[in-house]
Amino acid sequence: MRVYSGIQPTGRKHLGNYLGAIRHFVTGQEDASAAGDDAIFCVVDLHATTVAYDPAELRDRTYDTIALLLAAGIDPERSILYRQGDVPEVPELTWLLTAVTAHGDLNRMHQFKEKSGQQRELVSAGLFLYPVLMAADVLAFRADRVPVGDDQRQHVELMRDIALRFNARFGGAAPDGTGGTEILTVPEGIYPTSGARIMDLQAPEKKMSTSSSTPEGALYLLDEPKAMEKKFKRAVTDSENPPVLRRGPEKAGVSNLIDILAAASDRTPDEVEASLVDARGYGDLKAATADAVITLLAPVQERYAALREDEAAIEAALAIGAEKARAIARPVVADVREAMGVGPRA
Ligand code: AQP
Fold it and tell me: For a substitution probing ligand 1, which of 74, 151, 194 has the most ligand atoms within 8 Å of its CB?
Protein backbone atom coordinates (compact mmCIF):
# COMPACT_ATOMS: atom_id res chain seq x y z
CA MET A 1 0.00 0.00 0.00
CA ARG A 2 1.98 3.01 -1.18
CA VAL A 3 0.88 6.28 0.44
CA TYR A 4 1.48 9.68 -1.21
CA SER A 5 1.09 13.08 0.44
CA GLY A 6 1.92 16.55 -0.80
CA ILE A 7 1.90 19.91 0.91
CA GLN A 8 2.48 23.41 -0.42
CA PRO A 9 5.28 25.58 0.93
CA THR A 10 3.05 28.63 0.87
CA GLY A 11 2.41 30.89 3.81
CA ARG A 12 2.45 29.78 7.40
CA LYS A 13 0.99 26.33 8.00
CA HIS A 14 -2.17 26.37 10.09
CA LEU A 15 -4.16 24.06 12.33
CA GLY A 16 -6.29 22.90 9.36
CA ASN A 17 -3.15 21.73 7.57
CA TYR A 18 -2.05 19.89 10.70
CA LEU A 19 -5.31 18.20 11.72
CA GLY A 20 -6.50 17.62 8.15
CA ALA A 21 -3.22 16.48 6.66
CA ILE A 22 0.18 16.54 8.41
CA ARG A 23 -0.92 14.44 11.37
CA HIS A 24 -2.30 11.79 9.03
CA PHE A 25 0.94 11.83 7.04
CA VAL A 26 2.63 10.44 10.13
CA THR A 27 -0.04 7.73 10.52
CA GLY A 28 0.39 6.95 6.81
CA GLN A 29 4.12 6.54 7.38
CA GLU A 30 3.47 4.05 10.20
CA ASP A 31 0.88 2.09 8.16
CA ALA A 32 3.09 1.92 5.08
CA SER A 33 6.11 0.93 7.11
CA ALA A 34 4.12 -1.84 8.88
CA ALA A 35 3.05 -3.12 5.45
CA GLY A 36 6.66 -2.99 4.22
CA ASP A 37 5.80 -0.33 1.66
CA ASP A 38 6.78 3.28 0.94
CA ALA A 39 5.23 6.43 2.27
CA ILE A 40 6.11 9.36 0.03
CA PHE A 41 6.00 12.99 1.15
CA CYS A 42 6.49 15.92 -1.13
CA VAL A 43 6.79 19.65 -0.58
CA VAL A 44 5.26 20.97 -3.75
CA ASP A 45 7.28 24.06 -4.63
CA LEU A 46 6.18 23.91 -8.28
CA HIS A 47 2.53 24.17 -7.23
CA ALA A 48 3.43 27.29 -5.26
CA THR A 49 4.50 29.08 -8.45
CA THR A 50 0.95 29.00 -9.86
CA VAL A 51 -0.07 32.15 -7.94
CA ALA A 52 1.80 35.42 -7.34
CA TYR A 53 4.84 34.70 -5.15
CA ASP A 54 8.26 35.93 -4.13
CA PRO A 55 11.17 33.59 -5.16
CA ALA A 56 13.32 34.16 -2.03
CA GLU A 57 10.29 33.63 0.17
CA LEU A 58 9.40 30.42 -1.66
CA ARG A 59 12.80 28.94 -0.85
CA ASP A 60 12.49 29.94 2.82
CA ARG A 61 8.95 28.58 3.08
CA THR A 62 10.10 25.34 1.51
CA TYR A 63 12.68 24.89 4.27
CA ASP A 64 10.05 25.90 6.84
CA THR A 65 7.65 23.26 5.55
CA ILE A 66 10.27 20.50 5.39
CA ALA A 67 11.38 21.31 8.96
CA LEU A 68 7.73 21.20 10.04
CA LEU A 69 7.18 17.77 8.49
CA LEU A 70 10.33 16.48 10.18
CA ALA A 71 9.21 18.01 13.48
CA ALA A 72 5.78 16.39 13.11
CA GLY A 73 7.40 12.97 12.85
CA ILE A 74 8.21 12.28 9.20
CA ASP A 75 11.35 10.17 9.19
CA PRO A 76 13.39 10.52 5.97
CA GLU A 77 15.17 7.24 6.72
CA ARG A 78 11.92 5.26 6.66
CA SER A 79 9.97 7.38 4.18
CA ILE A 80 10.70 9.27 1.01
CA LEU A 81 10.69 13.02 1.63
CA TYR A 82 11.48 15.17 -1.39
CA ARG A 83 11.00 18.60 -2.94
CA GLN A 84 8.84 18.52 -6.06
CA GLY A 85 11.20 20.65 -8.16
CA ASP A 86 14.01 18.10 -7.63
CA VAL A 87 12.16 15.40 -9.57
CA PRO A 88 11.87 16.46 -13.24
CA GLU A 89 9.94 13.30 -14.12
CA VAL A 90 6.87 14.90 -12.49
CA PRO A 91 6.54 18.00 -14.72
CA GLU A 92 7.27 15.77 -17.72
CA LEU A 93 4.45 13.45 -16.71
CA THR A 94 2.20 16.48 -16.18
CA TRP A 95 2.55 17.39 -19.83
CA LEU A 96 1.98 13.83 -20.98
CA LEU A 97 -1.18 13.60 -18.86
CA THR A 98 -2.65 16.74 -20.38
CA ALA A 99 -3.35 14.48 -23.40
CA VAL A 100 -6.04 12.68 -21.35
CA THR A 101 -7.31 15.62 -19.27
CA ALA A 102 -10.50 17.37 -20.33
CA HIS A 103 -10.34 21.15 -20.47
CA GLY A 104 -13.95 21.21 -19.24
CA ASP A 105 -13.03 19.22 -16.12
CA LEU A 106 -10.26 21.68 -15.23
CA ASN A 107 -12.69 24.54 -15.73
CA ARG A 108 -15.05 23.02 -13.15
CA MET A 109 -12.45 22.84 -10.34
CA HIS A 110 -13.64 24.87 -7.33
CA GLN A 111 -10.08 25.75 -6.36
CA PHE A 112 -9.35 27.19 -9.81
CA LYS A 113 -12.53 29.28 -9.69
CA GLU A 114 -11.71 30.55 -6.22
CA LYS A 115 -8.01 31.23 -6.71
CA SER A 116 -8.30 32.70 -10.20
CA GLY A 117 -10.73 35.24 -8.73
CA GLN A 118 -8.13 36.22 -6.11
CA GLN A 119 -5.32 36.96 -8.61
CA ARG A 120 -4.77 40.66 -9.22
CA GLU A 121 -2.29 40.65 -12.11
CA LEU A 122 -2.26 37.32 -13.85
CA VAL A 123 -4.29 34.14 -13.87
CA SER A 124 -1.50 31.77 -14.89
CA ALA A 125 -1.91 28.72 -17.10
CA GLY A 126 -0.16 26.93 -14.23
CA LEU A 127 -3.10 27.65 -11.94
CA PHE A 128 -5.42 26.07 -14.49
CA LEU A 129 -3.14 23.02 -14.84
CA TYR A 130 -2.57 22.72 -11.07
CA PRO A 131 -4.75 19.57 -10.76
CA VAL A 132 -2.83 17.84 -13.59
CA LEU A 133 0.46 18.53 -11.80
CA MET A 134 -1.12 17.12 -8.64
CA ALA A 135 -2.25 14.03 -10.57
CA ALA A 136 1.29 13.59 -11.95
CA ASP A 137 2.72 13.84 -8.41
CA VAL A 138 0.71 10.84 -7.31
CA LEU A 139 0.57 8.82 -10.55
CA ALA A 140 4.36 9.04 -11.08
CA PHE A 141 4.73 6.85 -7.99
CA ARG A 142 1.85 4.44 -8.67
CA ALA A 143 0.60 5.40 -5.21
CA ASP A 144 -2.49 3.62 -3.88
CA ARG A 145 -3.57 6.04 -1.17
CA VAL A 146 -3.69 9.80 -0.92
CA PRO A 147 -4.56 11.15 2.54
CA VAL A 148 -5.91 14.71 2.13
CA GLY A 149 -8.34 17.14 3.73
CA ASP A 150 -11.89 17.40 2.45
CA ASP A 151 -11.09 20.42 0.23
CA GLN A 152 -9.00 18.19 -2.07
CA ARG A 153 -11.77 15.69 -2.90
CA GLN A 154 -12.43 17.14 -6.35
CA HIS A 155 -8.73 17.05 -7.26
CA VAL A 156 -8.43 13.44 -6.13
CA GLU A 157 -11.49 12.46 -8.19
CA LEU A 158 -9.91 14.15 -11.20
CA MET A 159 -6.63 12.28 -10.78
CA ARG A 160 -8.58 9.01 -10.64
CA ASP A 161 -10.39 9.97 -13.87
CA ILE A 162 -7.07 10.85 -15.52
CA ALA A 163 -5.55 7.46 -14.57
CA LEU A 164 -8.66 5.58 -15.77
CA ARG A 165 -8.74 7.52 -19.04
CA PHE A 166 -5.02 6.95 -19.58
CA ASN A 167 -5.33 3.19 -18.99
CA ALA A 168 -8.33 3.05 -21.35
CA ARG A 169 -6.71 5.14 -24.08
CA PHE A 170 -3.21 3.66 -23.95
CA GLY A 171 -3.56 0.36 -22.08
CA GLY A 172 -6.73 -0.99 -23.69
CA ALA A 173 -8.65 -1.07 -20.37
CA ALA A 174 -12.43 -0.58 -20.14
CA PRO A 175 -13.53 2.90 -18.91
CA ASP A 176 -14.22 1.41 -15.46
CA GLY A 177 -10.61 0.23 -15.27
CA THR A 178 -11.23 -3.47 -15.90
CA GLY A 179 -9.21 -5.44 -18.44
CA GLY A 180 -6.25 -4.20 -20.46
CA THR A 181 -3.00 -3.08 -18.83
CA GLU A 182 -3.04 -0.92 -15.72
CA ILE A 183 -0.18 1.37 -16.72
CA LEU A 184 -1.11 3.90 -14.04
CA THR A 185 -2.46 2.95 -10.62
CA VAL A 186 -5.85 4.48 -9.83
CA PRO A 187 -5.34 5.98 -6.36
CA GLU A 188 -7.84 6.28 -3.56
CA GLY A 189 -8.40 9.44 -1.50
CA ILE A 190 -8.28 8.92 2.26
CA TYR A 191 -10.23 11.54 4.21
CA PRO A 192 -9.83 11.92 7.96
CA THR A 193 -12.87 11.16 10.11
CA SER A 194 -12.09 14.09 12.35
CA GLY A 195 -10.37 17.36 11.45
CA ALA A 196 -11.14 16.96 7.74
CA ARG A 197 -12.38 20.54 7.52
CA ILE A 198 -11.22 22.99 10.15
CA MET A 199 -13.02 26.29 9.82
CA ASP A 200 -11.79 29.86 10.20
CA LEU A 201 -12.02 31.01 13.84
CA GLN A 202 -13.45 34.39 12.85
CA ALA A 203 -15.59 33.29 9.89
CA PRO A 204 -16.55 29.71 10.76
CA GLU A 205 -18.60 29.20 7.62
CA LYS A 206 -15.34 29.29 5.61
CA LYS A 207 -12.45 26.84 5.87
CA MET A 208 -9.28 27.93 7.66
CA SER A 209 -6.98 28.80 4.79
CA THR A 210 -3.54 30.19 4.02
CA SER A 211 -4.71 32.54 1.33
CA SER A 212 -8.05 33.81 2.61
CA SER A 213 -8.03 33.64 6.41
CA THR A 214 -7.06 36.70 8.46
CA PRO A 215 -4.27 36.28 11.05
CA GLU A 216 -7.02 36.17 13.75
CA GLY A 217 -9.05 33.56 11.85
CA ALA A 218 -6.16 31.16 11.28
CA LEU A 219 -4.29 29.42 14.07
CA TYR A 220 -0.70 29.02 12.88
CA LEU A 221 1.27 26.00 14.01
CA LEU A 222 4.14 28.18 15.14
CA ASP A 223 2.01 30.72 17.03
CA GLU A 224 3.13 31.29 20.61
CA PRO A 225 0.88 29.55 23.15
CA LYS A 226 -0.31 32.97 24.43
CA ALA A 227 -1.32 33.98 20.89
CA MET A 228 -3.18 30.68 20.46
CA GLU A 229 -5.08 31.22 23.70
CA LYS A 230 -6.03 34.71 22.56
CA LYS A 231 -7.26 33.52 19.17
CA PHE A 232 -9.44 30.83 20.74
CA LYS A 233 -10.75 33.31 23.32
CA ARG A 234 -11.85 35.61 20.49
CA ALA A 235 -13.20 32.83 18.27
CA VAL A 236 -16.69 33.55 16.93
CA THR A 237 -19.43 31.42 18.54
CA ASP A 238 -23.10 32.49 18.71
CA SER A 239 -25.42 34.43 20.97
CA GLU A 240 -27.66 31.62 22.21
CA ASN A 241 -28.72 32.31 25.77
CA PRO A 242 -28.21 30.11 27.68
CA PRO A 243 -25.24 28.89 25.63
CA VAL A 244 -25.68 25.52 23.95
CA LEU A 245 -22.48 23.48 23.82
CA ARG A 246 -23.47 21.22 20.95
CA ARG A 247 -22.90 21.07 17.21
CA GLY A 248 -25.70 22.23 14.99
CA PRO A 249 -26.51 23.69 11.57
CA GLU A 250 -26.81 27.26 12.85
CA LYS A 251 -23.81 26.86 15.13
CA ALA A 252 -20.78 26.90 12.83
CA GLY A 253 -18.43 28.48 15.40
CA VAL A 254 -19.31 26.14 18.28
CA SER A 255 -19.30 23.11 15.94
CA ASN A 256 -15.82 24.05 14.74
CA LEU A 257 -14.45 24.36 18.29
CA ILE A 258 -15.96 20.99 19.22
CA ASP A 259 -14.44 19.41 16.10
CA ILE A 260 -11.03 20.93 16.87
CA LEU A 261 -11.18 19.80 20.50
CA ALA A 262 -12.19 16.30 19.38
CA ALA A 263 -9.40 16.03 16.81
CA ALA A 264 -6.78 17.51 19.15
CA SER A 265 -7.69 15.22 22.05
CA ASP A 266 -8.33 12.05 20.02
CA ARG A 267 -11.99 11.84 20.91
CA THR A 268 -15.16 11.86 18.87
CA PRO A 269 -17.23 15.07 18.75
CA ASP A 270 -19.99 13.17 20.62
CA GLU A 271 -17.56 12.35 23.42
CA VAL A 272 -16.49 15.99 23.59
CA GLU A 273 -20.12 17.15 23.80
CA ALA A 274 -20.73 14.65 26.61
CA SER A 275 -17.69 15.98 28.46
CA LEU A 276 -19.11 19.51 28.27
CA VAL A 277 -22.42 18.90 30.06
CA ASP A 278 -21.23 20.71 33.17
CA ALA A 279 -19.47 23.53 31.32
CA ARG A 280 -20.63 27.02 32.25
CA GLY A 281 -20.45 28.59 28.83
CA TYR A 282 -18.52 29.05 25.61
CA GLY A 283 -15.52 30.30 27.62
CA ASP A 284 -15.00 26.78 29.02
CA LEU A 285 -15.12 25.26 25.53
CA LYS A 286 -12.63 27.82 24.23
CA ALA A 287 -10.25 27.26 27.15
CA ALA A 288 -10.41 23.47 26.79
CA THR A 289 -9.79 23.73 23.05
CA ALA A 290 -6.84 26.10 23.48
CA ASP A 291 -5.38 23.79 26.10
CA ALA A 292 -5.67 20.67 23.93
CA VAL A 293 -4.20 22.38 20.86
CA ILE A 294 -1.29 23.93 22.77
CA THR A 295 -0.45 20.55 24.34
CA LEU A 296 -0.70 18.80 20.97
CA LEU A 297 1.57 21.28 19.20
CA ALA A 298 4.16 21.93 21.94
CA PRO A 299 6.48 19.02 21.00
CA VAL A 300 6.22 19.88 17.29
CA GLN A 301 7.15 23.50 17.99
CA GLU A 302 10.09 22.46 20.12
CA ARG A 303 11.56 20.09 17.54
CA TYR A 304 10.90 22.58 14.72
CA ALA A 305 13.09 25.28 16.25
CA ALA A 306 16.17 23.01 16.24
CA LEU A 307 15.54 21.47 12.81
CA ARG A 308 14.86 24.72 10.94
CA GLU A 309 18.24 26.16 11.92
CA ASP A 310 20.22 23.61 9.94
CA GLU A 311 19.51 24.17 6.24
CA ALA A 312 22.51 22.04 5.22
CA ALA A 313 21.03 19.05 7.04
CA ILE A 314 17.67 19.70 5.37
CA GLU A 315 19.34 19.80 1.94
CA ALA A 316 21.21 16.57 2.68
CA ALA A 317 17.93 14.83 3.58
CA LEU A 318 16.29 16.23 0.43
CA ALA A 319 19.11 14.99 -1.82
CA ILE A 320 18.58 11.44 -0.57
CA GLY A 321 14.80 11.86 -0.94
CA ALA A 322 15.09 13.09 -4.54
CA GLU A 323 17.26 10.13 -5.48
CA LYS A 324 14.80 7.63 -4.00
CA ALA A 325 11.85 9.43 -5.61
CA ARG A 326 13.44 9.54 -9.05
CA ALA A 327 14.29 5.84 -8.87
CA ILE A 328 10.53 5.12 -8.59
CA ALA A 329 9.24 7.79 -10.98
CA ARG A 330 11.72 7.20 -13.81
CA PRO A 331 10.44 3.75 -14.91
CA VAL A 332 6.80 4.86 -14.53
CA VAL A 333 7.35 7.82 -16.86
CA ALA A 334 9.26 5.52 -19.23
CA ASP A 335 6.19 3.22 -19.37
CA VAL A 336 3.95 6.22 -20.05
CA ARG A 337 6.19 7.48 -22.86
CA GLU A 338 6.36 4.01 -24.37
CA ALA A 339 2.57 3.58 -24.25
CA MET A 340 2.03 7.01 -25.77
CA GLY A 341 4.55 6.51 -28.58
CA VAL A 342 6.76 9.35 -27.35
CA GLY A 343 10.54 9.05 -27.96
CA PRO A 344 12.45 6.07 -29.32
CA ARG A 345 11.10 2.51 -29.24
CA ALA A 346 11.88 0.87 -25.88
N1 AQP B 1 -9.10 24.03 6.80
C2 AQP B 1 -8.61 22.83 6.57
N3 AQP B 1 -9.07 21.75 7.25
C4 AQP B 1 -8.56 20.51 7.03
N5 AQP B 1 -7.57 20.26 6.14
C6 AQP B 1 -7.07 21.30 5.44
N7 AQP B 1 -6.10 21.40 4.50
C8 AQP B 1 -5.97 22.68 4.10
N9 AQP B 1 -6.86 23.46 4.76
C10 AQP B 1 -7.56 22.63 5.60
C11 AQP B 1 -5.32 20.26 4.03
O12 AQP B 1 -3.95 20.58 4.18
C13 AQP B 1 -3.20 19.87 3.20
C14 AQP B 1 -2.17 20.79 2.62
O15 AQP B 1 -2.80 21.73 1.81
P16 AQP B 1 -2.00 22.66 0.86
O17 AQP B 1 -0.70 22.12 0.54
O18 AQP B 1 -2.93 23.07 -0.23
O19 AQP B 1 -1.72 23.82 1.84
P20 AQP B 1 -2.23 25.23 1.88
O21 AQP B 1 -2.10 25.85 0.55
O22 AQP B 1 -1.53 25.84 3.04
O23 AQP B 1 -3.74 24.96 2.25
P24 AQP B 1 -4.82 26.03 2.27
O25 AQP B 1 -4.83 26.72 3.55
O26 AQP B 1 -6.06 25.34 1.84
O27 AQP B 1 -4.30 27.00 1.17
P28 AQP B 1 -5.08 27.91 0.21
O29 AQP B 1 -5.53 29.05 1.00
O30 AQP B 1 -3.99 28.27 -0.76
O31 AQP B 1 -6.18 27.11 -0.39
C32 AQP B 1 -4.19 19.31 2.18
O33 AQP B 1 -4.34 17.92 2.35
C34 AQP B 1 -5.47 20.02 2.53
O35 AQP B 1 -6.59 19.20 2.26
Answer: 151
